[in-house]
Design brief:
Helices cover 50% and strands 12% of the residues.
Length: 733
């Protein structure tokens, strides 16, 4: 038992080293995403759960948008609930560290299911947690939480296929798939689904018990889809209302920062032990995927041998295929393979960053590294040795004769020297079998040393701080957090790191300080079509891909901003307010970097647009506004009190999402959309109490379906054999 647990203990230690900045008491990993996206979403979720309600809406950004419907929030993910016991940055950091360990142990566990030795599986797990792709994804919490479940999905699927009569394996697969769906990032979920689908189909091909295995897998998938139905239905509904629901423009996917540049391919995978910035060396942040020279040679050797061997062909071929396809897709739309997938694979066109397929390549490579270690321990044949030498020679020629970059001459020599040292060790294992085990351990030591040296330029080091994101506020954010109305910021998007972007209210950071904004940034389902269309009312050439500040016409028109509920604007003190917000009052609050100005035309948190008759159209110009009393009982429950002298359209500056219902004096009324964006309802003169509640039709059925899914999964874990298996009647005596 102790020997069985040793690989996981070693992977735990490697994970602890790789994530040391995430859990060390005086350290915090604070990135752009942490301060402006992950932490604000985390706080919206925690606030809802501590109030014993589902966080259906985030009313702090975009004038109120789906929160549960945004998969990247991971609202229903159980491990995220545990993180609510901590402060935002620490909770997110610990989530990242836990998932790096989860991924490493998953790779180790899956490798053992593939009959890789304990030593080989341990090496695979260590490579997985130390490789550049995982280190990089660890600071993108929404992505690492999904990709960590990939090896567990593959391992559980393999166990179901090999033992379809054991229902507990189907239950385990249901849990792994459910956790993948609930944990977050849509593109990462799509990648896990693609790899798993190809792998499972390959295992079922010409399998004598494929029918029983398919039934067990179908049962597991049904249970997981039911369990995740609340998240899935919310996401599908939000996607249908999203600006991106029709897919992305393929020409926009060729952004050099979002694709693997072919000339940087060797830099990306081999890495540099001398470079100070792994993102610069790899060509972009999204392309960081180093695994080192030794691991690359072992992985390529193992791939070539495994696909030829009959006993490993069934599982190795689909993994090799997905590694190759993932590499090609990471190059972006420059290849026909990518364009075909974009045109014909459902959902493929929703992915924004092609280079993120490199994490799939890295995970598969890590698995094959362990296989390569076993080959060295068993002794390489002359053909295998020739393959290693040929791979090294091809890489050398690519750097010397072809337009493939190495970064510098010293890097090329380090690569070549490391490769030759690895070859010398493998040659010695052939000629000196009596010390083969010791030489294999020496090769492993060289591999680990190289990866630790590569880790010296870890991107995590560049984003480690002694101050958590939630403490980066300033006097202006503190002042704004106690005010009504929407705030937008015209501060500099490229003004620096989180210590500038967070207090400058890089749009989503407003939610972390409980400041409401009509602005925001997501790049996903929270950018609704109605919000994108509304931008045209205040900008001649809006760009929904970017925050409002990138589209709004300057100087700011007070009347137009008031119509959108904007009361305050945040400026950098180096900006000229007379050029950006002429006529605005202020500064109302200031600190050493920012200043707040107030809109002189602001009406109220909610208002009534006076009409001549109950059925008159909503006013467009020269409107008469009357402030009304608004009480926010929760983001999903609003109450308005009015005392009007004539009929009006009462307007609440919240996006008119499908699912909002309104009552006037307890009687159901019809929703009127104001300015193609906000909630409105027509009322007659006099006193009225108006109640708005967000209760979409899919909520109750999907909650019920999720509970059924959990029950089915528990039954699978408890069950011993499927109902379709009938006992064979005994022969008559």
């Amino acid at each position: 038992m102790r020997r069985r647990g040793l690989p996981y203990l070693i992977v735990l230690l490697a994970s602890a080293w790789a994530t040391r900045h995430f859990w060390w008491p005086s350290h915090y990993v604070v990135t752009f995403d942490t301060g402006t996206y992950a932490a604000p979403n985390w706080m919206v979720g925690k606030s809802a759960f501590t109030d014993w309600r589902l966080p259906l809406i985030n009313d702090r950004i975009f004038g109120g948008v789906p929160h549960l419907g945004n998969p990247q929030t991971g609202t229903l993910y159980p491990l995220r609930w545990v993180s609510y016991l901590f402060e935002p940055t620490r909770g997110l950091n610990l989530l990242a560290a836990v998932h790096v360990f989860l991924l490493g142990t998953g790779v180790t566990f899956f490798s053992r299911r593939l009959s890789v030795s304990r030593l080989g599986a341990t090496v695979s797990g260590v490579v997985a947690v130390l490789c550049g792709a995982v280190v990089t994804k660890s600071i993108q919490i929404e992505q690492i939480m999904v990709i960590a479940w990939l090896p567990w999905v593959l391992a559980c699927a393999l166990m179901v296929i090999r033992h379809p009569e054991r229902l507990r394996y189907a239950g385990a697969l249901s849990i792994a798939v459910s956790m993948t769906i609930l944990s977050g990032h849509p593109q990462m979920t799509y990648e896990v689904a693609m790899v798993a689908a190809v792998f499972v189909l390959a295992q079922l091909w010409r399998n004598s018990q494929w029918r029983r295995a398919l039934r067990s897998i179908s049962l597991a998938l049904t249970a997981s889809l039911l369990t995740s139905s609340l998240q899935l239905i919310a996401a599908l509904t939000a996607t249908g209302d999203s600006y991106y629901s029709g897919g992305r423009d393929i020409n926009a996917l060729g952004n050099g920062d979002f694709v693997l540049r072919a000339r940087h391919a060797m830099q990306v995978f081999l890495g540099s032990v001398t470079s100070d910035r792994s993102d610069v060396f790899a060509g972009s942040f999204e392309s960081i995927s180093y695994i080192g020279v030794v691991a690359t040679l072992l992985a390529l050797l193992a791939m070539a041998v495994s696909v030829r061997r009959h006993e490993s062909r069934r599982w190795s071929i689909p993994l090799v295929v997905m590694a190759f396809v993932g590499f090609v897709w990471s190059l972006g739309p420059r290849t026909p393979v990518f364009r075909l997938a974009f045109d014909f694979l459902p959902g493929f066109d929703l992915g924004r960053v092609s280079a993120r397929w490199l994490v799939v390549v890295s995970m598969i490579a890590a698995i094959f590294v362990g296989v390569g270690v076993d080959l060295v321990r068993q002794g390489l044949t002359r053909r295998m040795l020739a393959l290693v030498a040929a791979t090294t020679a091809a890489g050398t020629i690519a750097v010397v004769a072809l337009p493939v970059r190495s970064g510098s001459g010293s890097t090329s020599w380090i690569w070549l020297g490391t490769a030759l040292l690895a070859i010398v060790v493998t040659v010695t294992t052939v000629r000196r079998p009596q010390i083969r085990t010791h030489l294999a351990r020496g090769l492993i030591a060289l591999l680990v040393l190289e990866m630790l040296l590569l880790d010296r330029a870890s991107i995590v080091d560049d984003v480690t701080s002694d101050v958590p994101a939630e403490q980066l506020g300033s006097a202006t954010t503190e002042w704004l957090s106690s005010t009504d109305g929407y705030t937008i910021a015209l501060t500099d998007d490229g003004g620096g790191g989180p210590d500038y972007l967070v207090p400058s209210l890089r749009p989503n950071a407003a939610a972390m300080f409980d400041i409401a904004s009509i602005d925001g940034y997501d790049g996903g389902v929270q950018v609704t079509r109605r919000w994108a269309n509304a931008l045209e009312r205040i900008s001649p050439a809006p760009n929904p891909e970017l925050p409002l500040r990138s589209s709004v016409a300057l100087p700011l028109d007070p009347a137009a901003m008031a119509r959108f509920g904007v009361r305050y604007v945040l400026l950098d003190v180096t900006d000229d307010p007379s050029a950006l917000v002429p006529g605005w009052r202020g500064p109302m609050a200031t600190d050493d970097r920012f200043a707040v100005y107030e809109n002189p035309d602001w009406i109220a948190p909610a208002w009534a647009i006076v009409t001549d008759a109950p059925d008159a159209p909503v006013c467009e110009v020269d409107c008469t506004y009357r402030p009304v009393d608004l009480r926010v009982l929760s983001p999903e429950h609003l109450r308005v009190g009015t005392n009007l002298e004539q009929s009006a359209v009462v307007t609440v500056p919240r996006q008119a999402l499908a699912g909002w219902h309104v009552t006037v004096d307890g009687k159901s009324a019809e929703v009127t959309v104001v300015d193609e964006l906000f909630l409105g309802v027509r009322v007659s003169a006099g006193e009225h109490v108006i109640e708005w509640r967000y209760r979409p039709a899919w909520l109750a059925p999907s909650v019920f379906a999720s509970l059924i899914g959990v029950a089915v999964t528990l039954l699978l874990l408890w069950g011993r054999r499927p109902r379709w298996r009938r006992s064979t009647p005994s022969a008559p005596r």
